[in-house]
UniProtKB/TrEMBL annotation:
Species of provenance: Xenorhabdus mauleonii
Top-level taxonomy: Bacteria, Pseudomonadati, Pseudomonadota, Gammaproteobacteria, Enterobacterales
Protein's name according to its UniProt entry: Uncharacterized protein
Length: 29
């Protein structure tokens, strides 16, 4: 796993902790 992938997973985990509502509102899903 390279650093970029690690950062992506980190950001994903933070978004999950914040809740999916924000990503749904911005149309990520």
């Amino acid at each position: 796993m390279n650093p970029e992938q690690f950062i992506e997973k980190n950001v994903e985990a933070k978004l999950i902790k914040l809740g999916f509502s924000s990503s749904i509102c911005s149309g990520q899903l």
